[in-house]
Design goal:
The chain is 21% helix and 13% strand. It is of the alpha+beta class. The longest helix is centred in the N-terminal third of the chain and has 13 residues.
């Protein structure tokens, strides 16, 4: 048969010796490798008690952002949904009513905002597309779930805690990828 590459190796078909048929050398070699690992540093960690530091380019669970007064930044423009290659984002827009200026930064806001985490590939395109710094990918893993519907994250799941009412929770959720509450939050 003609070979497509020059990487072909002819397999040795020579019969095994009596010693080889005992399989002892192979077993001893395997055990030697196993025992040699006893003296090596353990590469595993006790997650979730211990965690590894995240890579600066790690992209985790999405967060819907607020401004420094706690107003929602999203204007339901839909650019993130259009940019999403997995079609994981859906939303419904609503108009801000008089007296709601402390809740929503712009005249339009997302009354409903959902991300299907079973579709999301954490590419970050939604973050790149957003003109309002309203959505970004945090340093948190999307939690596991036993139900499919548990992976549909609504606005309540995605919205960052209020920076004035819950400053500690806000800072924790915001993480280190987004440093400036008002400016463009992305470091990359
Ligand atoms: S990270 Fe990518 S796949 Fe996930 S919601 Fe954003 S654009 Fe869609
Ligand atoms: S998150 Fe950003 S891009 Fe998506 S709808 Fe809101 S403002 Fe538009």
């Amino acid at each position: 048969m003609q070979a497509l590459t020059n990487k072909v190796e002819v397999v040795s078909r020579k019969p095994m010796t009596w010693w080889e048929r005992m399989y002892l050398p192979a077993i001893l070699k395997g055990m030697a490798i196993t025992f040699s690992h006893i003296f090596k540093k353990n590469p595993t960690i006790n997650y979730p008690e211990k965690t590894r530091p995240f890579s600066p380019v790690f992209r985790g669970l999405q967060i819907l952002n607020r401004d420094e007064e706690g107003r929602e930044k999203c204007t339901a423009c839909g650019l993130c949904a259009v940019a999403c290659p997995a079609e994981a984002i859906t939303m419904e827009a609503a108009e801000r009513q008089p007296g709601e200026e402390h809740l929503y930064k712009e005249e339009k806001y997302a009354a409903k905002y959902e991300i299907n985490m079973l579709r999301c590939i954490f590419c970050g395109f939604c973050e790149e597309a957003c003109p309002k710094d309203a959505v970004y990918l945090s340093e948190t893993f999307a939690p596991s779930n036993f139900q499919r519907k548990g992976f549909i994250y609504g606005k309540d799941d995605l919205l960052i805690p209020h920076p004035v009412n819950e400053p500690e929770a806000f800072a924790k959720a915001r993480g280190s990828r987004a440093k400036n509450p008002e400016g463009h939050g992305n470091e990359h």
